[in-house]
Amino acid sequence: MENCLSLRGVRKRYGNFELDVSFTLPNGCIMGFVGENGAGKTTTFKLILDLIPRDEGEICLFGQDNRAGGRSAREEIGVVFDECSFYEALTPAEIGKILGGIHPHWENALFRDYLRRWNLPEKKPLKAFSRGMKMKLSIAAALSRRPRLLLLDEATSGLDPVMRGEVLDVLQEFVQDEQHAVLLSSHITSDLDRVADYVTFLHAGRSILSENKDTLLFQYGVAKGADALLDTLPRELVAGMRKGRYGSEALVTDAQKARRACPELTVDRPNLEEILVLLGKGM
To answer: Second label for 275, Cα 20 to 30 Å away, from 114, 152, 224, 243?
Structure first.
């Protein structure tokens, strides 16, 4: 499987903050890109787009350096940030005409199909749109450029569950073409449970985990029990721990080994949110 995007040892320094991130996104896949606010997710997006220069490392887009590809490589990327960037006096029909004159791969018929699919009025100005409608419009515009890579930075936050479901359906349709890929930054782990193939976790500027989601959910475990029992677990198995008044739990990197090491503990299969929360506790 070829890679759509690869970051190796990419670093960016801002005063006391340093970003150090590495991950690989294969073609035909959706990667959930998660981390606390201020972890460096938006900075990573800007580095991929070459909007800001990196201090160290390599960023490869479609098999070549992202700077070497220049504008032609960026034309292969659709981007949606967490706020709609279009002028609010414009209508979707006017936006389609403007974008059609800018982007060489623009398909206005596809754009209008998305407008109809999502019940977005072509001739109503954006200032009359809800946040959810604006985000759908932004995603429709990004997809109508016929990109190979779609970058979504918290684009589903603030959407109701029905709207999010519609957007996630479109993302899954998009990656049916195995030359496409999606990097999806989101705090909504249920969305990632549903659509992500890979997960990369950024904490305090560092990528501390990047793994196939199914491997994570199958191999990791959440051990629950008294503190004294949890403390008997081999330290190399414990990735994070949360202690409470009425019980404690530890994230273990190999559930089977944890059960063998301490049969008295209950070791359950985790969901993605438990993995991310407990992993953050271990940092």
So the answer is: 152
Q: What single letter denotes the amino acid at residue 189?
A: T
Number of Cβ atoms within 10 Å of the Cβ of 257: 17
In 3D, which of 196, 203, 186, 226 has the Cα closest to residue 277? 203
**pLDDT tens digits, residue range 128-154?**
998 888 889 999 999 999 999 999 998
Cα distance between residue 242 and residue 213, in whole Å: 22
Chain centre to alpha carbon of residue 76: 18
Q: What is the pTM of this model?
A: 0.90
The token pair at 133 is 């409608």
Element spanning 6, H or E: strand 3-14
| Placement of tokens 């559930």 in the chain | 255
Q: How far apart are CA 280 and CA 147, in angstroms?
A: 33
DSSP symbols for 87-119? -TT--HHHHHHHHHTT-TT--HHHHHHHHHHTT
Place of tokens 């073409």: 177
Give the span between the Cα atoms of 162 and 130, in whole angstroms.
14
Contacts for 276 with CB less than 8 Å, ≥ 6 apart: 34, 189, 201
